[in-house]
Specification:
The complex is a heterodimer of chains A (96) and B (551). Chain A is an alpha+beta fold and 96 residues long. Chain A has 2 helices and 5 strands. Classes of the chains: A alpha+beta (96), B alpha+beta (551).
Chain lengths: 96, 551
């Protein structure tokens, strides 16, 4: 399965995914996907530099199922439930 | 209630400005995350699954209406418009941005609130009976002693780096509403044979991965000796508690390993050295603090039970609310009104900013501007004239805060679980919701009667599952959420840890399992017998059969 880098941005703390160009997006759909181990290592290397530069905190790789037309999500879906909740928010409605 | 003196305000204000500079240094890169993390934790700022989480102390669960409005303001201005009241009588904000935390803390400081010692290996917020000062059954006001402990433990230099966190709870009533037997130190005021009030001192209780009911190391302690005795306990723990393994570093492990008698011996030896020092509490100082809690001059009212009965007949919803959510007040003509934060409208303990503002208004109108937070994640208006209960109820209905379920099956404690918490292994809130959905029929809820359901999303037990009459612990089983059940737990005066039923259940099976447990209870209970008493009488077997089939 492909891998994406997840982290929290330092200044606001929100979950973020690293784009191809090394910038960060709150949308997992924008996350750069590594198809091979070598690609994944390169992505993580770059993310760790962003952590060292105090842009993000605690970046790491997560495995995702690619977006597909027949699934209910048009975005990649993290395989681990914890990461799914991080990517898409609490599974319960926010009180309003 | 207690108001900050100059010392308190200066301390909190200076801490905000210090943290403002620390945040600036972190944002500029001058501090690394490893350097910054202990600094932010000392101010109650965690990093959770989705964002930073800010925990603000509500000392012994007491809030003024002004403070509640400040909490609403912080939720609205710096967060996503809501907050979460916790099992430690605190509030947590889930979406606070690091760059805005200093401003939020400054606003909170202006209302005498902060997050100092809401995290870290120090003495945490002291918790208390939420009915303190107004309970019909109490022998003294525990807030007086909580405030004394708060002042003593705030930035106590010797106890700022304990082996592990440290939690103290205080009650002064025979009915334990503060879960004192599952705290590091539980203080229970009672009268000695001479009729003098003093504290039974219970140590080494706790939940988490290694739960223990606390043990009494002193039957009666004179209030004047409170701080010297606490200091002696903390010194023994600080010196002898383990620091090599965080899972074995709570005081409960020390007490368990050396035994309560040896622990008592060490404490008493230390106490003999420090008892007659400056830690001795002069009666005048106790009275000075007590004056802060003197409370309003209550009107001379007569008991309004006839009026309430008529109103309840005309409005059965009000009748149900009265039955479940009222507690007896020490002053005739008044009542303690509980506000349930357990409905299908929001996760347990969650409240919107608009609701917080509205409850602040209600406190001003009906309860001398005072609000309490309890460890079951509900609110209390401590002093409402009985004749005002109906208008209060009608307003609470409009606010969706009138659920008549205090102490009943849908009044579920649930930690934030995997929906928010980075430590969790499984979700808690959806399980609470699924159970709540099954018990929407209030007649049935009241037919089942008094029962506590407590849910934790990991073994750290923030949801107090060990001491729920029905306890539910979420675990991760090969990537799937599973829920282990315990029965027979209690955090009251009859405190007990629950017994495991057997194998766990999937998320879909959890609420049906609760249903089976309660159906079994209804089938075997004696007239008027609570769930806990039935369980203690009949044991696990009938429940096991209902859950897993006959062996």
């Amino acid at each position: 399965m492909p891998k994406i880098v997840i982290a929290n941005t330092l200044a606001d703390g929100f979950v973020a995914f690293m784009r191809e160009d090394g910038t960060w997006s709150p949308d997992i759909g924008h996350g750069a996907q590594a198809a091979t181990e070598a690609d994944a290592e390169r992505l993580l290397e770059r993310a760790l530099q962003a952590a060292a530069a105090n842009i993000v905190i605690d970046p790491y790789l997560i495995e995702v199922a690619p977006a597909s037309a027949d699934a209910d999500s048009d975005r990649p879906r993290p395989l681990e439930y914890r990461e799914y909740i991080r990517a898409f928010g609490p599974s319960v409605a926010i009180p309003t | 209630m207690y108001r900050y003196d100059e010392f308190d305000s200066t301390l909190v204000r200076e801490r905000v400005e210090q943290f403002r500079r620390q945040v600036a240094r972190r944002l500029s890169g001058e501090l690394t995350e490893d350097q910054f993390k202990p600094l932010r934790l000392m101010n109650g700022l965690y990093l959770q699954l989705h964002a930073y989480m800010l925990r603000i102390n509500i000392p012994y669960g007491v809030l003024s209406s002004r403070q509640m409005r400040t909490l609403a303001h912080v939720a609205r201005t710096y967060d996503r418009g809501y907050g979460h009241f916790t099992t430690r009588q605190n509030i947590q904000y889930n979406w606070i941005q690091l760059q805005q935390v200093p401003d939020a803390l400054a606003d909170l400081a202006a209302a005498e609130m902060h997050g100092i010692q809401s995290s870290g290996n120090c003495i945490r917020n002291v918790t208390a009976d939420q009915y303190a000062g107004v309970a019909a059954d109490e022998i003294d006001d525990p807030r007086v002693y909580c405030e004394i402990i708060r002042q003593w433990s705030t930035l106590h230099p010797e106890f700022s780096f304990l082996p592990r966190k440290f939690k103290i709870a205080v009650t002064a009533a025979p009915t334990d509403r503060a879960a004192v037997q599952v705290h590091d130190i539980g203080l229970r005021m009672h009268r000695n044979p001479d009729g003098e009030p003093g504290f039974e001192v219970v140590v080494g209780g706790g939940q988490g991965r290694t739960p223990f009911i606390g043990q009494t190391i002193r039957e009666w302690l004179e209030p004047a000796d409170l701080l010297s005795y606490l200091e002696a306990i903390l010194r023994v723990y600080n010196q002898d508690g383990r620091r090599d393994n965080m899972y074995k570093s709570r005081i409960k492990i020390l007490v368990h390993q050396i035994g309560a008698d040896e622990f008592r011996r060490r404490v008493e030896a230390e106490w003999a050295e420090i008892r007659d020092t400056a830690l001795q509490l002069p009666a005048a100082e106790i009275e000075r603090i007590r004056a802060h809690f003197r409370g309003p001059d209550f009107a001379t009212l007569s008991d309004a039970s006839d009026l309430l009965e008529q109103q309840a007949l005309a409005n059965p919803g009000f009748g149900a609310w009265l039955k479940a959510n009222m507690a007896p007040h020490r002053v005739a003509g008044y009542a303690i009104a509980n506000i349930s934060l357990k409905s299908l409208d929001a996760p347990p303990g969650d409240m919107t900013a608009a609701q917080m503002d509205a409850v602040a208004d209600l406190a001003d109108t009906y309860s001398n501007g005072e609000i309490r937070v309890n460890h079951r994640q509900n609110l209390v208006l401590p002093s409402v004239a009985q004749r005002d209960l109906l208008p209060l109820y009608e307003r609470l209905v409009e606010l969706k805060l009138a659920t008549a379920n205090i102490g009943h099956v849908s009044d579920i404690i649930a930690c934030p679980g995997l929906d928010y918490c980075s430590l969790a292994n499984a979700r808690s809130i959806p399980i609470a919701r699924q159970i709540n959905e099954r018990f929407q029929d209030l007649d049935r809820v009241h037919e089942i009667g008094e029962v506590t359901i407590n849910i934790s999303g990991c073994m750290n037990a923030c949801g107090h599952h060990h001491v729920g009459n029905i306890g539910i612990l979420g675990v991760d089983k090969r990537g799937e959420e599973y829920y282990q059940f315990t029965l027979g737990g209690s955090s009251g005066a009859d405190a007990a840890l629950g017994d495991r039923t057997g194998p766990g259940f999937s998320a879909a099976e959890a609420a049906p399992a609760v249903e089976k447990i309660l159906q079994t209870y209804l089938a075997v209970r004696h007239e008027g017998e609570r769930f806990l008493d039935t369980y203690r009488r009949v044991g696990m077997q009938p429940f096991k059969e209902a859950l897993y089939g006959a062996a």
